[in-house]
């Protein structure tokens, strides 16, 4: 029995993760597919993908060991956004854990799977840089016209501080921050850029 326990420590596992949005939805479609894919253990959350706290996903992260593979039925079952998805996959990668999505046929244990996520990361960074560049250009044009900070600001100093705190905590998606403060994504990035260059409201 002791030998079996020792051998089990060196046995890599396929670990499934499922998520449904509301309590009246069933995860059986996902869990059946995960079992068929060979998952020996399963974690399942019932909550919106917008929810920053997903207890079973946290338990999965604690349970996984180097060499294991996390399997999901579809990418959107894991990540709340592209940025969130990339952050989770990067966490797995840093721990020596592979990731597989059945619906999209992505496996980060393969070179093609790794390439796909490098491309995802590059696209997310490209989008962010475009927004920042537009913000800089808009602010510069406004300054040349003698307008401080461009168009009329929509946030109070307290709200701007809240924006920065939520953004840098990395616990909220961009969409969540925008909805909380009732602003658009370009406006959010404009305030972040203003804070970066030291422009005060």
In short:
By secondary structure, the chain is α/β, with parallel strands linked by helices. The protein has helices spanning 2-9, 28-36, 55-63, 82-94, 111-144, 157-169, 174-181, 185-197; strands spanning 14-20, 41-46, 69-72, 98-101, 106-107.
Features:
single chain; 201 residues; alpha/beta; five-stranded mixed beta sheet; 8 helices; 5 strands; 53% helix; 11% strand; disordered N terminus
Chart the SSEs and their pairings.
Blueprint: H1 2-9, E1 14-20, H2 28-36, E2 41-46, H3 55-63, E3 69-72, H4 82-94, E4 98-101, E5 106-107, H5 111-144, H6 157-169, H7 174-181, H8 185-197
Parallel strand pairs: 1-2, 1-3, 3-4
Antiparallel strand pairs: 4-5
Tell me the strand percentage band.
5-15%
Helix content: 40-55%
- Rounded Rg: 21 Å
Overall strand count: 5
**Quick one: overall form?**
elongated
The SSE order reads HEHEHEHEEHHHH
Distance between the ends: 68 Å
The major beta sheet can be summarized as: 5 strands, mixed
Structural class: alpha/beta
- Helical region count? 8
Query: What number is the mean pLDDT?
Result: 81
Q: Record the strand order, biggest sheet.
A: 2-1-3-4-5
Contiguous low-pLDDT stretches (5 residues minimum) are: 3-9
Describe the model:
- There is one protein chain.
- The chain is 53% helix and 11% strand.
- It is of the alpha/beta class.
- The radius of gyration is 21 Å and the shape is elongated.
- The termini are far apart.
- Residues 3-9 have low confidence and may be disordered.
